[in-house]
């Protein structure tokens, strides 16, 4: 239970660390929205009471006109193009409908001018270039047509500079994002190269240690009848069985080495043993002197490649354990189904004699743990326990199809 709690705590901590940047971004975005709402409220509060100073507007309509001048700023993040369109439409209509006061010669309130310029800047930074061009031209024409005297030209030049500034910021941001994305790709590639180098090192070590010794076993087993005089037919058959088993193991090792040396893209296409090779596995155990009986009881019609490989490896390890720890004992293998699960039971009787000391001394003790890991990796389970009669039982349950069980 303590291991489970530690694992859950570790997962929670990792999730919290991963979510921290996202929460920070959400918090920053929320504060920006609050600031925009606050500024819009201030501008509306300024535009409403000062509207009667700039234009002849009926009292009941003043909140609407003030809202048309200030409230489009609320769209500056969500949809700046729509906010600009509303503000520009208001700037087009107001001078035509409402007359200016005698002391005010500009067609719009200062608040309206500030909002439309802020929205035009946002459009130039975020909207498609076609929308930027239309917004810039329409705003420049709007000021050229309505600004008093020669002021329209100055406003047009100023608006052009504003749009160019927005485009510059836009391109700077895009270039930094592209640089960050490229750095991320480079980091992933560096990590991938490091993994490939580590896999290549593991493959070299396996080849130098395991494959080398297995090759020597094959050579010794094949040459023993010629190197040793008066080899009986039974001993010669035993040497042939040892050589065949060692060759099979060597072929599997070479296959795994090929996958390790590859970049991982061919791993799915690498030939992997499944239930179709269980008979070969059992026959190899029988050649080694084991008594193995196989029963098939209602196997699932569909069995995924991962489930088949898991069942094969569990059976392989179970037979190896039985050969080491219960030499001479009969072994019963039962393949069946339990709903959507494929089941494998391997039961061996008590050992007839003691396990060879060399095998017992060199047994690593990780076989059952490895079998449990294999079963859990495909959503299954495995139990391994002694039997009351002194034997041993391994029971694996594996989903027949990924996602079932």
TrEMBL record:
<protein>
    <recommendedName>
        <fullName>histidine kinase</fullName>
        <ecNumber>2.7.13.3</ecNumber>
    </recommendedName>
</protein>
<dbReference type="GO" id="GO:0016020">
    <property type="term" value="C:membrane"/>
</dbReference>
<keyword id="KW-0812">Transmembrane</keyword>
<feature type="transmembrane region" description="Helical">
    <location>
        <begin position="30"/>
        <end position="51"/>
    </location>
</feature>
<dbReference type="Pfam" id="PF07730">
    <property type="entry name" value="HisKA_3"/>
</dbReference>
<keyword id="KW-0902">Two-component regulatory system</keyword>
<keyword id="KW-0067">ATP-binding</keyword>
<feature type="transmembrane region" description="Helical">
    <location>
        <begin position="104"/>
        <end position="122"/>
    </location>
</feature>
<feature type="domain" description="Signal transduction histidine kinase subgroup 3 dimerisation and phosphoacceptor">
    <location>
        <begin position="198"/>
        <end position="263"/>
    </location>
</feature>
<dbReference type="GO" id="GO:0005524">
    <property type="term" value="F:ATP binding"/>
</dbReference>
<dbReference type="GO" id="GO:0000155">
    <property type="term" value="F:phosphorelay sensor kinase activity"/>
</dbReference>
<keyword id="KW-1133">Transmembrane helix</keyword>
<keyword id="KW-0597">Phosphoprotein</keyword>
<feature type="transmembrane region" description="Helical">
    <location>
        <begin position="57"/>
        <end position="76"/>
    </location>
</feature>
<feature type="transmembrane region" description="Helical">
    <location>
        <begin position="81"/>
        <end position="98"/>
    </location>
</feature>
<dbReference type="InterPro" id="IPR050482">
    <property type="entry name" value="Sensor_HK_TwoCompSys"/>
</dbReference>
<keyword id="KW-0472">Membrane</keyword>
<feature type="transmembrane region" description="Helical">
    <location>
        <begin position="129"/>
        <end position="148"/>
    </location>
</feature>
<keyword id="KW-0808">Transferase</keyword>
<dbReference type="GO" id="GO:0046983">
    <property type="term" value="F:protein dimerization activity"/>
</dbReference>
<feature type="transmembrane region" description="Helical">
    <location>
        <begin position="154"/>
        <end position="173"/>
    </location>
</feature>
<keyword id="KW-0418">Kinase</keyword>
<dbReference type="InterPro" id="IPR036890">
    <property type="entry name" value="HATPase_C_sf"/>
</dbReference>
<keyword id="KW-0547">Nucleotide-binding</keyword>
<dbReference type="InterPro" id="IPR011712">
    <property type="entry name" value="Sig_transdc_His_kin_sub3_dim/P"/>
</dbReference>
């Amino acid at each position: 239970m303590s291991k489970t709690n530690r694992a859950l705590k570790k997962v929670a901590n990792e999730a919290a660390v991963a979510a921290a940047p996202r929460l920070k971004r959400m918090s920053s975005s929320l504060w920006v929205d609050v600031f925009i709402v606050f500024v819009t409220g201030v501008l509306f509060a300024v535009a409403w009471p000062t509207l009667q100073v700039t234009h002849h507007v009926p009292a009941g309509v003043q909140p609407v006109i003030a809202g048309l001048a200030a409230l489009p700023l609320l769209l500056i993040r969500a949809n700046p193009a729509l906010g600009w369109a509303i503000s520009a439409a208001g700037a087009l209509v107001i001078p035509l409908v409402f007359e200016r006061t005698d002391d005010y010669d500009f067609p719009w309130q200062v608040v309206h001018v500030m909002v439309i310029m802020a929205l035009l800047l946002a459009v130039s930074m975020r909207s498609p270039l076609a929308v930027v061009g239309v917004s810039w031209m329409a705003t420049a024409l709007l000021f050229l047509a309505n600004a008093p005297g020669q002021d329209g030209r100055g406003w047009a030049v100023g608006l052009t500079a504003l749009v160019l500034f927005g485009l510059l910021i836009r391109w700077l941001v895009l270039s930094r994002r592209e640089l960050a994305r490229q750095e991320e790709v480079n980091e992933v590639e560096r990590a991938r190269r490091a993994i490939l180098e580590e896999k290549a090192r593991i493959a070299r070590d396996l080849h130098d240690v395991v494959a080398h010794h297995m090759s020597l076993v094959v050579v010794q087993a094949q040459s023993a009848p010629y190197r040793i005089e008066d080899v009986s037919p039974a001993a010669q058959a035993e040497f042939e069985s040892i050589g065949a088993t060692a060759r099979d193991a060597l072929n599997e090792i070479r296959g795994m080495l090929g996958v390790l040396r590859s970049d991982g893209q061919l791993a799915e296409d690498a030939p992997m043993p499944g239930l179709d090779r269980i008979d070969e596995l059992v026959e190899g155990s029988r050649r080694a002197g084991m008594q193995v009986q196989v029963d098939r009881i209602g196997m699932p019609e569909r069995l995924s490649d991962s489930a088949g490989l898991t069942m094969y490896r569990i059976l392989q390890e179970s037979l190896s354990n039985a050969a080491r720890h219960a030499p001479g004992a009969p072994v019963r293998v039962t393949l069946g189904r339990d709903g959507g699960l494929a089941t494998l039971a391997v039961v061996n009787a008590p050992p007839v004699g003691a396990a060879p000391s060399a095998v017992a001394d060199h047994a690593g003790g990780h076989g059952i743990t490895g079998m449990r890991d294999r079963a859990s990796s495909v959503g299954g389970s495995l139990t391994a326990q002694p039997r009351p009669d002194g034997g041993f039982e391994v029971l694996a349950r594996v989903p027949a199809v990924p996602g079932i069980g």
